[in-house]
Prior knowledge:
The chain is of the alpha+beta class. The chain is 57% helix and 20% strand.
Amino acid sequence: xxxxxxxxxxxxxxxxxxxxxxxxxxxxxxxxxxxxxxxxxxxxxxxxxxxxxxxxxxxxxxxxxxxxxxxxxxxxxxxxxxxxxxxxxxxxxxxxxxxxxxxxxxxxxxxxxxxxxxxxxxxxxxxxxxxxxxxxxxxxxxxxxxxxxxxxxxxxxxxxxxxxxxxxxxxxxxxxxxxxxxxxxxxxxxxxxxxxxxxxxxxxxxxxxxxxxxxxxxxxxxxxxxxxxxxxxxxxxxxxxxxxxxxxxxxxxxxxxxxxxxxxxxxxxxxxxxxxxxxxxxxxxxxxxxxxxxxxxxxxxxxxxxxxxxxxxxxxxxxxxxxxxxxxxxxxxxxxxxxxxxxxxxxxxxxxxxxxxxxxxxxxxxxxxxxxxxxxxxxxxxxxxxxxxxxxxxxxxxxxxxxxxxxxxxxxxxxx
Length: 416
């Protein structure tokens, strides 16, 4: 679960806890209020019943204007109701909170409607409805406090989310940087830790971008400087009268031109500036392209043997130029360190294996995937490093094993 989701979950739990707390508080306070009100209404009821008993001959109209009753009810914030329509509404829609009765006779009952309490008193043959003028203020005060805490929680949530969203944006930008887009800017005006990380990363990116630009300029300069003497060498070889010597020189200079192009392409690959174009290719076409890049003579070509598992099935989903360069380096290494100067290429579905005769040259691929690594007097220069780098970019699996006197290097595609 992401930090963004975790923080949302935490604030949701806090909101639920605050709601439950205030909800419970309202219920408890309301019960307490009703209990105290019941005691108050009991005292009012005792007074009114005694008064009605002592003045049983008085009519309802006389009771309403009675000075003693009105003075008492006024002191306890109550008054007698005379609106018959509202009384009918109370009897239909009012919610009964409590009633005290005996022998089918209701002594009194408490009715609630629209946040107001009403007291019904019966003393045959007289019935009275008394309105409590006090408002249930405790309920609204608690609601206001609850809303204050909810607003505070929301403001804190927005405050934290601002930083978290900035972190989420930064993570998306880092993913784009991982994919090779160094033009991304992570600069921000935030002053917190996320802002510091973003600004530091942006500064590092600008330095890396400058270094890559310098490297590209350096590679172009080298390629240009090398192409000039190669062109002059090819021109001089063309003036040679010895045809065999001329062909040999041409082959050497063509080889140098290919090496210069490879050198430039490797620089692009390692700088993540190469555009990868992948689709299905026959492995034999990739091998033919790799062999063509090596500019081998007829004797050297005879030292390479192809073995097909199924030529139609031997396909791989990859970038043509990069995979051809990868295979070319594997063939070059296999021929260089083979005892009989021969290499067997096994082509199967989604992969290729190159086998050459000789003593076990390495025990583990890992140390030899570093550039110019030397171990036990075996030097593989950039060869395996190039193979490893390209296979990593193309998500290919690069393996080595020694089997029955054969050094076997394999490249395969992971199929899920």
